[in-house]
């Protein structure tokens, strides 16, 4: 493990942290080889690197495993309320990262006792989800999706399966119909908010997400049911409707896009890595190993923004000023050579940071529910289409050029048509 405070701080330059050597987060390196970029940043800057966000807004990227764990474990130094940011005067109203950092009355930005109250409501609402029933529901959803393309012998799994299944499972858990135009639009807006492509408007998309969730909360306030939304509304903590809206957005967003990428990244590993080739057909143990290895090496959320320094402090040999923004480099931390000196992450270990850590980590039992959805999706597909193979060469698969999410543009496959 690296020592977060043992090295002497680098001398800050004018406009620190945007001093000489700051690297823009984005570009072609992020599209295909972010791991190489992380290695370069670590070699040139150490465990904490000066970076530039969209519009050349300065921030720090925390690359080290120990440093990420330190930041997430010390809320008194690195807090979640983004109103502390010392760059707000430089942020335009249409800044594409506003859905991530613009303060909302959401559990994501609360601190201390208020965070524990809000997170407790989410935890208890999610604990009401029967994991065995969720697995059965996901299997039924998977069967329906597979049936829609099984007879053709070809499919594009990202859009037709990996993206669709967790979407339907997430909205169903929250009490929405898993089909219909309103649901499809909600999920598309969530995608734009989290992983905008060229020409997308993430700020407008996030606004539409809020409007649809407010409608759901109004419906459940009048007619509660056996779902996550109703349990949040009926919880004795007495959250307001707006608090429930904001926290539901966080729950649904976390359940949908990252889980979709987890499924697709795992399928890619199973279909391209010879270590899994012998047992990919119905190989349940291999599926479990692949799911965990993906969390280490191709984690669905590769960077998370962020934390804001409460006061001047040091981290990884850097002088961090009060109000500076820190981006949690989850993917870089998971492959930190300080914890994997041989550049190999063992699939048997679950000490990755893919669900973050500390008080603001993904609340229990959300990681377990995501695992149920992802595992059921992968296993059901391999059972129904046992001779599944890539329809292109592995090197033709391309990653979305996102700084934040790690997911493929598409995953085209071929198989023997199944006629029912």
Descriptive notes:
With 420 residues, the chain is an alpha+beta fold. It has one domain (23-414): Cytochrome P450 (Cytochrome p450, Orthogonal Bundle), CATH 1.10.630.10. It is 47% helix and 10% strand. The protein is built from 16 helices and eleven strands. Strands 1-2-3-9-6-4 form a six-stranded mixed β-sheet. Strands 5-11-10 form a three-stranded antiparallel β-sheet. Helix 12 packs across helix 16 (366-384) and helix 14 (284-297) packs across helix 16 (366-384). The protein is globular, with a radius of gyration of 21 Å. The relative contact order is 0.19. The model is unreliable at 1-18 (pLDDT under 50).
Give the % helix: 40-55%
- Radius of gyration from the CA trace? 21 Å
Strand pairing plus helix content: what structural class?
alpha+beta
| Main pleated sheet | 6 strands, mixed
Strand content: 5-15%
Order of strands in the sheet with most strands: 1-2-3-9-6-4
- Strand tally, please? 11
Shape by Cα distribution: globular
- Looking at CATH, the homologous superfamily is Cytochrome P450
N-to-C span: 55 Å
Number of domains: 1
Question: Total helix count?
Answer: 16
CATH topology: Cytochrome p450
State the CATH architecture. Answer: Orthogonal Bundle
Mean pLDDT: 87
Order of helices and strands: EHHEEHEHHHEHHHHHHHHEEEEHHEE
List unreliable stretches of 5+ residues: 1-18
At the first level of CATH, what is the class?
Answer: Mainly Alpha
């Amino acid at each position: 493990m690296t020592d977060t405070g043992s090295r002497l701080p680098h001398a800050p330059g004018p406009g620190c942290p945007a001093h000489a050597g700051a690297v823009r987060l984005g570009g072609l390196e992020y599209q295909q080889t972010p791991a190489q970029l992380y290695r370069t940043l670590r070699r040139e800057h150490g465990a904490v690197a000066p970076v530039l966000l969209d519009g050349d807004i300065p921030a720090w990227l925390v690359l080290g495993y120990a440093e990420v764990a330190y930041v997430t474990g010390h809320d008194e130094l690195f807090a979640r309320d983004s109103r502390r940011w010392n760059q707000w005067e430089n942020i335009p109203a249409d800044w594409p990262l506003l859905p991530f950092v613009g303060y909302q009355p959401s559990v994501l930005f609360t601190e201390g006792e208020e965070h524990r109250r809000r997170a407790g409501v989410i935890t208890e609402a999610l604990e009401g989800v029967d994991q065995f029933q969720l697995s059965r529901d996901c299997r039924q959803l998977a069967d329906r999706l597979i049936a829609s393309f099984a007879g053709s012998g070809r499919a594009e799994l990202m859009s037709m399966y990996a993206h669709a299944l967790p979407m339907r499972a997430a909205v169903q858990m929250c009490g929405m119909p898993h089909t219909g135009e309103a649901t499809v639009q909600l999920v598309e807006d969530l995608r734009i908010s989290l992983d905008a492509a060229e020409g997308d408007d993430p700020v407008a998309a996030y606004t539409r997400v809020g409007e649809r969730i407010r409608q759901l909360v109004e419906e459940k306030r009048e007619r509660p049911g056996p779902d996550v939304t109703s349990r949040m509304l009926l919880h004795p903590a007495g959250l307001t409707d707006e608090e429930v809206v904001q926290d539901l957005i966080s729950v649904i967003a976390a359940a949908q896009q990252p889980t979709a990428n987890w499924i697709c990244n795992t399928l890619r590993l199973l279909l391209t890595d010879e270590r899994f080739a012998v047992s990919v057909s119905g190989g349940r143990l291999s599926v479990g190993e692949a799911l965990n290895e993906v969390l280490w090496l191709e984690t669905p959320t590769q960077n998370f923004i962020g934390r804001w320094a409460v006061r001047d402090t040091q981290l990884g040999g850097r002088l961090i000023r009060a109000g500076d923004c820190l981006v949690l480099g989850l993917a870089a931390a998971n492959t930190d050579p300080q914890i994997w000196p041989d550049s190999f992450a063992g699939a048997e270990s679950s000490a990755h940071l893919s669900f973050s850590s500390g008080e603001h980590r993904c609340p229990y039992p959300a990681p377990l529910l995501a695992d149920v959805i992802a595992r059921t999706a992968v296993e059901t597909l391999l059972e129904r289409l046992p001779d599944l193979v890539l329809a292109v060469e592995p090197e033709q698969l391309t990653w979305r050029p996102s700084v934040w999410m790690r997911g493929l543009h598409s995953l085209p496959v071929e198989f023997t048509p199944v006629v029912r």
